[in-house]
Amino acid sequence: MLFCGIDDIKSGKIPSNRIGGAEYVTNNIYSNLTLVGEGFEQESLAIVTPKQWLYGQDLDVNILFLKESGNLDNLQVK
User: Fold this and answer.
1) Which of 9, 21, 51, 73 is the most exposed, fewest CB within 10 Å of its CB?
2) What does the domain layout of the chain look like in residue ranges?
3) Domain of life, per the record (predicted)?
4) What's the whole-model pTM score?
5) What pLDDT score was predicted for residue 22?
6) Distance CA 28, CA 22 (A)
7) Which residues of 17-28 are buried (b: 16+ CB within 10 A; e: fewer)?
8) Distance (Å, whole) CA 22 – CA 29
């Protein structure tokens, strides 16, 4: 996947569910790339799950626990 800019995101060339994946791609797939410009909100987290998912509340509680304990930040550093 070639990242060309904000116009590709606006036009739908890059699907909205791939936004935010640039950091992963540059760190793990195309290590010769460099991210430029302002980053996205670092205090937000989104995981897509089905509506009324059986494990939704458990996921929410565990993510909150990881965030409050500082372990979520440690995972990002790794």
Assistant:
1) 51
2) 1-40, 41-78
3) Eukaryota
4) 0.43
5) 64
6) 10
7) eeeeebeeeeee
8) 10
Give dist(CA 26, CA 24) in Å, integer.
6
Amino acid at the residue 43: E
Close Cβ partners of 34 (under 8 Å, ≥ 6 residues apart): 26
Q: Which two tokens stand for residue 77?
A: 């550093």
Looking at residue 51, the DSSP 8-state letter turns out to be T
User: pLDDT by residue (tens digit) across 18-31?
Assistant: 656 666 666 666 66
Token pair for residue 42? 């670092």
Place of tokens 């990242």: 3
